[in-house]
Every structure is written in C-alpha cells, then in structure tokens.
Inverse folding.
C-alpha cells in the first residue's frame, strides 16, 4: 500500500478515533478517501461536461425536449 503523509494534527485525530472505536486507522482513511474521491470525480467530470457545453461540443436539452425524446408526454 502506498504511504501517504498527513499533518500531525490529523494523525492525532485519527489515532484518537481509532483508539476510541477499536477500528484501524487504515479503515478510516479508506472510508474518507472513497467518499472524497467520489465527490472530486463528480466535480471534475461535471466541469469537463460544462466545458464541452460551453464549446458547443455537448447537446443540452430542455425539459420539454427530454420528456418528448423519452416518450414521457404520451
């Protein structure tokens, strides 16, 4: 597993949490990383889509167009 350096204050908090809950520090780091990585991916992928929209490379549909295309107005 790759090593990650974290500031001492965060390491202290992590140690305290691990000690009080009986869980490993690694389990908390994995959980936090997974949640943050999901948010970061969503953000950057959304920004890429917005850039394509801005450049005219991505089609944007109105709600009426989307309903019609999906056959929801029938």
């Amino acid at each position: 597993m790759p090593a990650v350096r974290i500031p001492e204050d965060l390491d202290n908090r992590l140690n305290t949490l691990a000690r009080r809950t009986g869980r490993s520090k690694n389990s908390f780091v994995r959980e936090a990383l997974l949640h943050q990585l999901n948010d970061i991916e969503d953000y950057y992928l959304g920004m890429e889509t917005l850039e394509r929209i801005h450049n005219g490379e991505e089609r944007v549909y109105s709600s009426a167009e989307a309903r019609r295309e999906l056959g929801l107005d029938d």
Summary: The helical segments are 8-21, 25-54, 63-69. DSSP finds three helices and no strands in the chain. The two ends are 54 Å apart (CA to CA).
